[in-house]
Amino acid sequence: MGMPVLVGWLSGHTAAGLMAATGGFTAVYGSGRPYLSRARELALIALAFAIVTGLGLAVAPLGWPVVVPAVALLAMLATWFCNALQVGPPGGYLFLMACAASASMLKPPFDPWHAALLVLAGGAFAWAVHMAGALAWPRGPEKAAVAQAARAVLAFLDATGTPRRAAARHEAALALHQAWSSLVTYQPVAARPGGRLATLRALNRHLHLVFARAAGTDGPAPPTLSDEVRRIEAQALGLPRKRSPDAPAVLPGVPVGHPGAWHALKGALIESASRQVILRVGVASLLAGGLGALFHLERAYWAVAAAVLMLHQGFDWTRTVVRALERLLGTWVGLLLAGAILLWHPQGLWLVATIMLLQFVVEMLVVRHYALAVVFITGAALTLASGGHPVDAPGEYLLARGLDTLVGCVVALLVYRALPVRDDGRGLSAPMTRVLQGVATLAPMLASGQVDDVAARTARRDLQRTTFALEQAYGAAVVASPRQRAVAEDRWPLVAAIQQLAYRMLSACWQRSHGEDAAVRVFDAADAMALQQSLSMFERKLSGEALKDGVDASVPLFGSELQAVRACLTERPPQGPL
After folding, report:
1. Pair 146, 177: CB distance under 8 Å
2. Which 3 state secondary structure label does DSSP give 251?
3. Cis upstream peptide for 90 (omega within 30°)
């Protein structure tokens, strides 16, 4: 953000430099993504910043009947796209902030098209800076992802035989999933035989196999597995830039990545929880903007931005309230910071240094400590919105921004309570059923040994994702209403048993792929049919039917897991809806 301001100052067009600096927010996104995927993502984000800035300037003179619906629609679209495509923090909020900052400029020096082009130029510079690491560490993000997965697997091995085993298993599985996303999903170009990407995939597959061995047994992990994991981490971090002559070829059976962008966007509209978040954002934006117009708030767009910040990530009620308090406190402290900057009215190199410092602090804090980041986001946004001009009444200007933020936070909390998560009486039954169905889908594939074709790898990916979704659903339930919390806590043993069954199936598929476990190799079609019959009975029990007697132990590979699920369904009757 500082370089566009410097160029503008040197050329005698400081206002143009400040406008272009809005595109510098592009640099906040994309960290951790492989560079080719990051290049595409950041280019689209820079374009989006240009569009929303031009939109803010274009609709500002039209009055609230046009402005409020336009900003609400923008809020819904930003929330939908950023959540569905897993853009990551700060998500759709900064796009609303850019729109609000441009719409609230005291003396807009440019028309919308000119402003959009300036922002796009600033975004292009941020893109180039963000991509500079590819010159020195072209596979740096992928190496870091594999190393992080290795550390998570090592923590899981250390937790075997302790109460932390289940949590550590989930964290390791999630880290491996994220590593595969980095190595597969976010790779727009196919891996070359013998290349660094193929080597990292081989290391991650070896790591995943170690995890499968440990997850497939209840006993303590042998020390040799921990030594293997440490070697894998060292190999990943020490991978040379030049290709090694003994590097592996392209591996068969690499896990499939996430579905494409269009599939993710459609899925976000199909999923009820995602639709609920988008609806809340739209309603809150309309109400915040409408109240701003009704009470003649000077720039009600800031109220809309505050409301979107509260709701766009789909947090539970507790975290939403905490986020509201963080937002209010952070904004009000940020207003003091912005007031000091506006009173100082830095020019030239001092203005450049101020903006660069603000952006640096934002990037350092936005993921680790959001409340503090808001302080500097507010300061940066208001400094850019001033356009380099002195503010006649900075106290009134900042007070209006604080009032807008308060209105937005209150509206967001009221909308959240008015549009609660729908409780259809099934509680955790739906996500548990999806996990059981995923295990049943893989059973015949495991029996036939066809665990590496596209259909099997897709089924394995889907089971992994539904297992993560079950964990998230449980976490959301325990912080929901008192009734949902009581039911969720009562169902925790069943949730844990079903998760263990899912991880046993995933572990068996990995071991069958490498021919390592004799017990897995003898799992045949009769075992698969017996497993599916037991799973079908469990599904019917979750839907409210009586559980018939069965001999789940007739499936030796999954006997203990099936018995655990059955025991939870029969010995711990629910205290409310399943």
Report:
1. no
2. coil
3. yes
